Structure formats: C-alpha cells, structure tokens
C-alpha cells in the first residue's frame, strides 16, 4: 500500500492535532498521562504516514536506525535518575540539533543529486543547519556543566560578546554565500562556525542559570525542527517546531521573571558564580551573628505545630533528601500537623525539577504548592523548614532596594513564626548575596547534609520527641 | 507549496503554541520539557525522507541513518521518560 500525497497530508494533520492535545493534557496531572499517549499516537501516525508515502523507497538504514534508537532511548528513559533529568533533557536536545543538521545536509546531497537546488531552498537549509548546530553544541556544553564534566562556573573574558557577534555574522555570511553559489566549502565552514557559536554562547552562563538555559535550548530544538520543515516543505514539522519553540520560549520567560532578570541579562551575563569552600560553617555563622540549632530544637517546635511548610531547593536534590522528607511528613501528619511543600519556579536545575523529585518520593501533588498559592499561608505557619534553598527565601528581595536580587519574587518564608534552615555551610547562594533571613530572631540554622538532617528529624520524631 | 503558505502555517502554529503552553501547570514543567523533547523528535520525518530517498548516495544514506538514529532516541526516550515521570504524580488517597 502506498499513501497518496493527500492522504499523507491528512495523516500529518491528525498527527499535529494529537500533539496539540498532548500538550493540552499537561494542564493537569490527571489528564497528563493520557496527553502523553496522544503524543505517542501522533508520532506513530507521522512515522507511519511518512514510511508509506511515495518518497521513501529504501528501508534498510531506516529499520537499523529506528531499532538502535528505540533500544538506546528506552534504556535511557528507564534508567535515568530523577535528579539527573536536566542532563538527560540536555542530551536529548543535542540529539534533535544534530539530527536537524544531518537532515539538512542529507537533503542538500539528495537535492543536488536530483538537480533540484535553488537559492531559497539552500537559504532554508542554511538556517536549519545553523540553528541545529547551535542547539547541538550548546546542549553538549549544558550537559557537561550539569554532569559536572566541565565547571559550572560562568567562563567569561573581555570582548566575549563582540566575538560571538562576529562569529554569528561570519556564519550567516557564509550561509548566504552558500545559498547563492552552491559552494560546498562555504557550507562546511558555515556548519563548523555554527557549532563553535553554540559553544561560545553557552559557556559563559553559570550552572545556577540552568533552568533558563534548558528552556532556551528546548526552544532552539523546536526552531531547528521548524527550519527543517521549511526546507522539506513539510507542514507537520513547521507546526510542531513552532509549538515546541514557543514552549521553550515561554518557559525561559517564566524562569527569567521568577529571577527578576531579563533574558538578555541571563544570556549575556550578570551573576552566577558557584560558591566554593565550606570550611568551619558553624564558626563563620557565629561570627556573622547567626543562630545555629540542633535537630531536637527543631522537633520541639514542629511536633505540636498546626502547620509546617517545607521549602526544598537544589540542596535537597543534591543530597537526595526527598525520601527522608516524605517519611518526616508522614510522621508529622500522624500527629495532626498539616504539612505542605512550597516550590519557587527556579528551584532546582530545570523548570519543575522539585515537583518531579517530590513526586518520585511519592509525595502527593496536592501537598506541593507553587509560590503564589502558598505565600498567603506563611504568616499563619508555625514552622517553615528550608531544605537547601537560599536566594528564593531572601527577604532582601522585598526590602532592600540596593540588593542585586531586589524585585525578585520570593517565598515569604520570613513571615513564618519559626524558621529552620538546613544548610551545609554559610556560603551564600549562587547570587553571592547574603540571606537576611538568617539574621532574623526567629530563624535558626541546622548545619549538615540535607539528607542526614532529614533522617535525624525522622529518628527524633520516632523517638517520641520531648 | 509556496513559501508564503508555509509562513502562514508557521505563524498560526506559534499562536497555538503560545496559548496551549500558558495553560500548562507549573508543577508539570519538567514533564513538559521532556514531552516537547519527544515531540521535537518529529525531525525523524525529515530523517526518513533523507535516508529513504531512492537515488540517495552513500553520503546521504549515512547522514540519514544517523539522523534516524538520533531522532528515534529522542522519540522513544522522550515519551517513555515523560510517561515514567507522569506515573509518579499522584493524589493523596493513593494507598
């Protein structure tokens, strides 16, 4: 059976609608899984319609590629740790970018062989290759930073932006030259320069800005698919690419807004250094006039509280403390304490990272609230327990106009009656700004690894408290 | 198909993206990134066209093969990991 062009186009339309429904499903956790199935169905229809179309005539390489890809993809998906989700996503973004480059280059070779090249097509091919290549090398850098293969610290040097602008201009110039002259060497130079550009664009951005970077690369991977759609005159790729591109763009916007920074500021630098050295945390704390507390002190206030709010941050992810926190939550609930989790939009290394980690620990999603939902509850909360979060709880964002983070929306932890902060050291957060929260009379710090402290809390509570 | 028609489709799809994505709940932003990842594996369609082209030379066939391979990793990895994550999001009365 061979599909006619019209039948294929209709199948693509069905597929596009299924993808839109898939994303629509993510409006609520209840409908999300069905949404994902819609997405799978859409993809199956798209692949089936392509294979049955008149354009695909040889199947050997296709079967081998799909089979190998299916095995690798399934193993990755089944094995990845939830804490490592940002790395997986970065890796997958790089694959989309590379695939787009290969498709554009292969299309060039095929069309050249068939004598169907023209300037518009070659211009579109160039755009596809440039966007794809930037997505690829940018994602590889993001992966390296997340995985700790390269330093998460921003790498900067003077003239960096000028250099990037120069590379971008030269890349486009070679692309135009290629489109006009069909010069193979221009095509190759353009491709290599685009790979370099992805590298130099992402390398200056600090590890703590990862939620924005992941979202941005997500967006690029969409635009790369859309550009491929333009070259192949394939509406499905254009539609899907545009939607994915916009998805990433909106996430970038949400992340930037949650840090009160512009996307320009994130991309072209600002702050973002990773803190180093952790020596004698307690000594430094005393010096700075911060109170430190024991696990027993914290339990004393929490065991008979009406409401406890837990504020997780990247520190919880690093320490894998979510399972111990879940046990702690259950013990408190048995005692009639209401326990909620408060999530700041940029907590963690990618959008929604904390929600996934808490879900992994089997903490029901109705216990997990977003910043705007939970902020009104802090003034009537007995204990706020901060686990590995820092800047997103700093009241200086509200009160100190001279602070670099002033204007950033924060969790109103400072308004709770008692505050306990689990922290490994007195190092400031990634912004390098001192957290005014720690100097409040009703705030105490518990020094230690988030997981060990959380387990300590569990043990203390099981022991019957005081 | 004319370039202008493609541009129409592109711009209208951008609007669909804009409205659909704003509806996504923030708690599902990680699954959203994973799902859009899987969906952008749609470049597999392009990869199939490249490697399935009848008169494709060896160079194009090899490029097509790797493009199919990478895009399939995205498709399978993306949808399965999204499914794995979404299965963990549960309401309170679970046990």
What does this 3D model show about the protein?
The complex is a heterodimer of chains A (466) and B (95). Chain A contains 18 helices and 6 strands. Chain A is of the alpha/beta class and 466 residues long. Chain A has a 6-stranded parallel β-sheet. Chain B is mainly alpha-helical and 95 residues long. Helices cover 77% and strands 0% of the residues of chain B. Chain B is flat. In chain B, 63% of the residues are buried. Chains A and B meet through helix 1, helix 2, helix 3, helix 4 and helix 8 of A and helix 1, helix 2, helix 3 and helix 4 of B.
Outline of this structure?
The complex is a heterodimer of chains A (466) and B (95). By secondary structure, chain A is an alpha/beta fold.
Descriptive labels:
heterodimer, A: alpha/beta, 6 strands, 60% helix, B: 95 residues, mainly alpha
What series of H and E elements makes up the topology of chain A? Answer: HHHHHHHHHHHHEHHEHEHEHEEH
Question: Helix count of chain B, per DSSP?
Answer: 4
Q: Using a beta-carbon cutoff below 8 angstroms, give the protein chain pair with the largest interface and the number of residues from each chain.
A: A-B, 111 and 84 residues
Strand % of chain B is under 5%
Write the layout of secondary structure elements.
The complex is a heterodimer of chains A (466) and B (95).
Chain A: H1 5-25, H2 29-52, H3 60-79, H4 85-114, H5 119-147, H6 160-181, H7 184-202, H8 210-232, H9 235-258, H10 263-267, H11 281-288, H12 295-302, E1 307-312, H13 314-319, H14 322-334, E2 338-343, H15 353-360, E3 368-370, H16 371-374, E4 383-387, H17 396-399, E5 418-423, E6 443-447, H18 450-462
Parallel strand pairs in A: 1-2, 1-4, 2-3, 4-5, 5-6
Helix pairs in contact in A: 1-2, 1-9, 4-5, 4-8, 5-6, 5-7, 5-8, 6-7, 8-9, 12-18, 14-18
Chain B: H1 3-22, H2 29-40, H3 43-52, H4 58-88
């Amino acid at each position: 059976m061979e599909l006619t062009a019209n039948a294929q186009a209709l199948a693509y339309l069905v597929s596009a609608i299924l993808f839109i429904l898939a994303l629509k499903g993510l409006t609520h956790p209840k409908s999300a899984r069905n949404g994902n199935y819609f997405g799978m169905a859409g993809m199956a229809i798209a692949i089936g319609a392509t294979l049955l179309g008149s354009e695909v005539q040889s199947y050997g390489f296709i079967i081998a590629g799909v089979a190998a890809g299916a095995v690798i993809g399934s193993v990755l998906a089944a094995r990845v740790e939830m804490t490592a989700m940002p790395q997986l996503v970065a890796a997958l973004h790089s694959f989309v970018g590379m695939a787009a480059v290969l498709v554009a280059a292969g299309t060039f070779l095929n069309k050249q062989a068939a004598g169907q090249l023209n300037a518009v097509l070659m211009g579109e091919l160039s755009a596809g290759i440039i966007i794809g290549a930037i997505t690829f090398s940018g994602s590889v850098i993001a992966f390296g930073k997340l995985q700790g293969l390269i330093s998460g610290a921003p790498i900067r040097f003077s003239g960096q932006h000028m250099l990037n602008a120069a590379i971008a201009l030269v890349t486009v110039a070679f692309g135009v030259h290629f489109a006009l002259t069909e010069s193979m060497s221009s095509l190759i130079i353009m491709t290599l320069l685009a790979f370099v550009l992805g590298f130099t664009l992402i390398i200056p951005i600090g590890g703590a800005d990862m939620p924005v970077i992941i979202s941005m690369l997500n967006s690029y991977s969409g635009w790369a698919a859309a550009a491929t759609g333009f070259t192949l005159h394939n509406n499905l790729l254009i539609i899907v690419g545009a939607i994915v591109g916009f998805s990433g763009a909106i996430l970038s916007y949400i992340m930037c807004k949650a840090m009160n920074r512009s996307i320009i500021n994130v991309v072209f630098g600002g702050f973002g250094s990773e803190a180093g050295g952790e020596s004698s945390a307690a000594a430094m704390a005393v010096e700075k006039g911060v109170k430190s507390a024991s696990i027993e002190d914290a339990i004393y206030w929490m065991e008979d509280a009406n409401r406890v709010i837990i504020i997780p941050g990247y520190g919880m992810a690093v320490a894998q403390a979510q399972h111990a926190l879940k046990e702690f939550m259950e013990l408190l609930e048995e005692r009639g304490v209401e326990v909620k989790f408060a999530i700041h939009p940029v907590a963690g290394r990618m959008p929604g990272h904390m929600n996934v980690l808490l879900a992994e620990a089997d903490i029901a999603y109705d216990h997990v609230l977003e910043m705007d939902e939970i902020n009104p509850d802090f003034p009537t909360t007995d204990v706020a327990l901060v686990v590995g979060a820092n800047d997103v709880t700093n009241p200086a964002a509200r009160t100190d106009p001279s602070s670099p983070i002033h204007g950033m929306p924060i969790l109103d932890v400072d308004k709770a009656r008692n505050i306990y902060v689990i922290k490994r050291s007195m190092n400031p957060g990634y912004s390098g700004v001192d957290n005014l929260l720690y100097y409040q009379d009703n705030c105490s710090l518990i020094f230690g690894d988030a997981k060990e402290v959380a387990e300590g809390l569990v043990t203390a509570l099981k022991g019957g408290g005081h | 198909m004319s370039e202008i028609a493609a541009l129409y489709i592109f711009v209208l799809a951008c609007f669909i993206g804009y409205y659909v994505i704003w509806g996504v709940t923030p708690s599902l932003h990680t699954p959203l990134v994973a799902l859009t990842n899987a969906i952008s594996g749609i470049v597999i369609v392009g990869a199939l066209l490249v490697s399935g082209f009848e008169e494709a030379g060896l160079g194009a066939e090899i490029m097509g093969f790797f493009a199919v391979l990478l895009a399939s990793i995205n498709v399978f990895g993306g949808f399965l990991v999204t499914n794995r994550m979404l299965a963990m999001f549960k309401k309170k009365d679970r046990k």
